[in-house]
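User: Quick one: structure for sequence A, then sequence B.

Assistant: Sequence A:
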Amino acid sequence: MYKQAYYNEPYLKDFGFNSIKGIDFDINLKRKSIKLMDYNEFDVSRHYTRLSQMNYSVDLGMYPLGSCTMKYNPKYADKISGMESFQEMHPLMNDECSQGTLKVMYLLQDYLKKISGLDYVSLQPSAGAHGEFTGILIIRKYFEDLNQLDTRREIIIPDSAHGTNPASASMGGFDVIEVPSDENGLVDLDALKNAVSERTAAFMITNPNTLGIFDDNIMKISEIMHKNGALLYYDGANFNAILGITTPGIMGFDIVHFNLHKTFATPHGGGGPGAGPVAVRSFLKDYLPVPLVSFKNGMYYLDYNIPKTIGKVSSYYGSFSILIRALSYIIKNGNYLKERTVKAVLNSNYMSHQLSGYYKIPYKELKKHEFVLSTENTGKKALDIAKYLLDYGVHPPTTYFPLIVKEAMMIEPTESATKKDLDYYIEAMVNALKADDNDLKMAPLNTSVSRIDELKAARQLKLHW
């Protein structure tokens, strides 16, 4: 009946078809000409090449965005993710015909379990913040299952936390309780003890934190939370500072999310595809999103038998092209992953030490993968120095974060930077202090776009042009 109706001649003519044979249809809407400007090939090529040169990227040089970890994305991972056998797989293909793809996902799950020190992994979340929100939903479901959700309405977060932490907790329906840092940049234990109560559901922390400082009291924090019946959540944003050295599992965490771009060098996303897998201890497995990728009787399969699941958090099974890049990075580097961590920490401490005579670097001297300096003692504004760096052809660091440091500049060189890169950047930072104030406020001068009025841009949005 469907085919007869479809090939009914009057029906087809209503849509502009003059034939019902399906071979030489004449569609009335077919364009007779296209109004395009007539350009030479070399003009078009030069135009787009110039546009590409107006952008800065990890392929051009050091990109020390503290807390964002913009490190070089290896091309072998891009090539593998672009293989035809992966690109042409349909997400609704049955398990029997998807064994290779499912094996890739299963292997990544397995590696992330070992790396996190936890028991089960979901690859479904599409970004780090999305992984956070997934973790919060798991916490919510867990306490709902224990009939404690009416009581446990609070999630504790340190004042050095990423902004996504309170946002995720709030979106999950929890109240956010902030605790201060102590004189060393660590969580103030006395403040934490005072904040914990029967209303506490979890404590979210990045370790090392956004100051680049590893919290020596993490085992005490774990004990405080678990003694109270609350969960401990690891924001994996700074996982690249501990990879191969310790794990959240050893530290006592119950839930972890990974930012694959930060630790495993996948593309950052920039609003595009990302991945934020979530790992949990075994007692939380039944709350993970469905499906998990499982293995049984010699076959990989999509496992929907998760009895108390929070449901799906993403279409299909996650951002596969990002996941396969992360797996490629892990397999390629293998036992050298620890060396990547050590080099990232070395680079950070080298820069911190070299700049310590020029800028104030608060809290503990020993840093991990990143460090925060302040321009407060220099008489210069962090924003002006950041703009000045652009004229050196380098990307400025994160500015004005974390909020607990005045005139903050947050620098993360990553393991991708060579000593030559680091020394050039240090030279630019020092020269910025020597620059005339008027010259600083005029910078940048050599970029395709000069300094904009950021206040005006924020208040008078230009949505159409």
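Sequence B:
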Amino acid sequence: MEIGVSSFAETTADPVTGEVMSHAQRLQEVVEEVVVADQVGLDVYGLGEHHRPDYAASAPAVVLAAAAARTQRIRLTSAVTVLSSDDPVRVFQDFATLDGLSGGRAEIIAGRGSFIESFPLFGQDLSDYDELFAENLELLLAVRASERVTWRGGHRPAIHDRGVYPRPVQDPLPVWIGVGGNPQSVVRAGTLGLPLAIAIIGGMPEQFGPLADLYRRAGEQAGHDPATLRVATHSHGFVADTTEQAVELQFPSYQHAMNVIGRDRGWHHYSRTSYEAGRSRRGALAVGSPEDVAEKILWQHQHLGIDRYMLHVSTGTMPHAEVLRAIELLGTKVAPIVRERLGE
């Protein structure tokens, strides 16, 4: 099983000082995180696309390209690309370029996104939310499948026998579908035979087991080899040398970040009680010692049969040195425990 890290390049206010770091500083920190993840043997680093002041990565492929020049083995993916408001041809070109620069390590996780700021920014109508994603995914896969493309849709200008370059090292360039729990999206991924990435940031991970089963059934009914129907999960968490240290370091920034988002979405105040429920054995948060986090990963593997696990280690602003230490522990302590228990 692959184990990796994801980030949104957060620049939320420090929960203690109230200071907000610059976007430039945070982007440089992200590149350092990828370098450390590569050095400690992690399999993948994912960077999300956002268009808000409290996130620095509106162009993940650019940031990952900077990291590609300083790494050797780790796979580099968006997490996610907001495909509904992006141009699919440009997305392909960006990640094909990243693929060439990295020697064949690029991936795309395409999703609808959890925020809507990109729609008005790029002139898209939210009433076309579902239709835009389906159409743009169709075009992205057409460009991936053929060097020259003829295509017509309802929102983007048609393409007639045009070449799209550069071509990636990998053939095909990996495209995953990222979902938050929408069954229709899960079925679409299975029917197309694309790997599935599920964001599990609340509730109990085993509740997502039926979605993983639905995905595999849809894929097999569409005639795809079950071995190619891969499932990844993404969860918030943090690793430190001891459980107490992990909780002390993460909770203030996590609470602050969740309440900032919660004010936008009408959520209830995120309390210490909510946090402790998430940290419980069956909760979605993977926070604690290496042994604690390994158990959380194995729990998801047991209930969802996952092939990849991505730990979002910096929800909110945290001391950079501690984030790097968490990534180090994920690679040197957590991953070996998981792989030994799985017999890998």
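The radius of gyration is 19 Å. The chain has a mean pLDDT of 96.

User: Thanks, that's what I needed.
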